[in-house]
Amino acid sequence: MDRAAKCCLAWLNPEQEFLPTGGYEVAHDTGRWWDAMLRFEAATGTQIPAHADAAMMRNLRTLTDNPAALLMNTARLPGPLEKIKVNPHNLRESLLACTALVRHRRSDWARQQGRKLVGTIHKLLDPDSQLNYEKLAVIAGGPLTTDQLMVQRSPAGQWFNATATTGRAIEAIVWFHEATGDARAMELAKRLAEVHLRHVIAPTGDVRAELRDPNHVGHTHSYCGTLRGLLLYGLASGDRQYVDVVAATYRKGLWGAAISHSGWTPHDQGKIRFADKVGDPIGEHASCGDVAQIALWLALRAGQTDLLDDVERLVRARLLPSQIVNPKNPRSDGAWGVYSHPFGQGAILDVFAAVLHSLADFHEHMVTRAANGALSVNLHFDIATPALTMRSKRGTNATLLITPKQCCDLRIRVPAWASRESVRLAIADKPLPLRWDGPFLVIARNNVTAGSAITLQHDLPQRQTVEEMPVSHRKFNLTWRGDEVVSCEPKVPIYPGKRPL
């Protein structure tokens, strides 16, 4: 995460008002930057440098200084005039930035801007809950984008896909409500959740055929963002149907359609607009983070704890190996992005800011505390918290070393793929009987002593999987040890012995 946060800072251009130039869109990327960096700051305590904070605050105020309160490129800041577009894709990023500033900086300005944008969306929804994009452009005061993905409309009463605009915005609207208590925001989230439930979700749990139609312009990250929003709305409102349908789609529809077992996610959904040299859709890493976060929320907030295995696998098998390490180029060192090779790398701000957002969430939920004071170790990564220190080692076997800093009941997740007969638990090198509660080992507080190391060991069974690309039908044979890929045939950029094909 530290490397990714430094990369976010490196994208600020001192020759152009410290704007994040060179990416998808300055306005969009400014919202992503604020959301990711404030989440990183909250998760780690590492503060944004004062000069970057001040410059980006000025930029955010300028980019949202329009009657809609929408992030929008403007002639008041450096940049080509042809890039000044009203882009409804930015509804989500505008509210993410406002929410982060309310939550972490208690910003009254951000609270007011968020409320203004919520009011704008309310005002522009037609009776069938399609957003009137032309009126949005009039209110914001600029030309409407011509990108077909962002301005799809259908005749009233017919099926439509607005995942790239209002669908992906639902999660930000829910979070804005949680940060501010704004009732209008929750009313808006309810209305949008209801319509996207009808248009995005298939009762069977499959990805809807309309979305997968090769003539339909779609976007995997926006689709996953809409699922995130529906899930968060269900959790916030207590309406279980939203949780259940997202869980069903996650378990049945996503795998193979929107993401592979190792975490490849296509940029495009439906029509392939951006293809690699052999015709397969290019990939991007943000959607992998999206899917892992959906799994995390279903596990920790909806009781589906088996999905924690998916979270850790996607981080270990895709996100960590795909991060660029290149200290000679600060604008790529620590980045993720859009990538051509199915096991490749890329560097573009909106994507790696989204991945940083996801990693900050995983970091904050590696270890959680229940209402009764018990600690749960949910993910096996290195971390130091006020309650414990944890170190993960992978060799012949997996070893998790936990050093408590206080006495309390402790629960430690064991991956389902680890054989039960291989599991060993010890405190200060003394074996401890295994008490299971689902996938968790339970240690009573009377066995926990501050400063006495607890060691969990289990095997790393080897297995093979095959991933086939959708157009070229290229096959990649992956060898796994536990939840990590140790080799691939043919060789690929991100795994050991890597070389580009």
Architecture overview:
Helices cover 40% and strands 16% of the residues. The longest helix is centred in the first third of the chain and has 19 residues, at 26-44. It has helices at 2-10, 26-44, 50-63, 91-105, 108-124, 133-140, 163-180, 183-200, 209-212, 220-237, 240-254, 286-301, 308-322, 349-364, and strands at residues 12-13, 19-20, 217-219, 268-270, 283-284, 338-339, 367-369, 375-377, 383-384, 388-394, 397-404, 410-413, 424-427, 430-431, 436-437, 440-443, 454-459, 462-468, 475-481, 484-489. The chain has a domain at 375-459: Immunoglobulin-like. Helix 10 runs parallel beside helix 12. Strand 10 and strand 11 form a beta hairpin.
- Give me the CATH fold name of the domain at 375-459: Immunoglobulin-like
Give the DSSP E fraction (strand runs of 2 or more residues): 15-25%
What name goes with the CATH superfamily of the domain at 375-459? Golgi alpha-mannosidase II
Total number of helical segments?
A: 14
CATH class of the domain at 375-459: Mainly Beta
Helix content: 40-55%
- What characteristic shape results from the CA principal axes? globular
Strands across the major sheet, in which order? 9-10-11-17-13-14
How many strands in all? Answer: 20
Structural category? alpha+beta
Q: Specify the biggest β-sheet.
A: 6 strands, antiparallel
CATH architecture of the domain at 375-459: Sandwich
The averaged pLDDT comes out at 97
Query: Whole-Å distance between the termini?
Result: 29 Å
Radius of gyration: 23 Å
Task: Detail the poorly predicted runs.
Answer: none
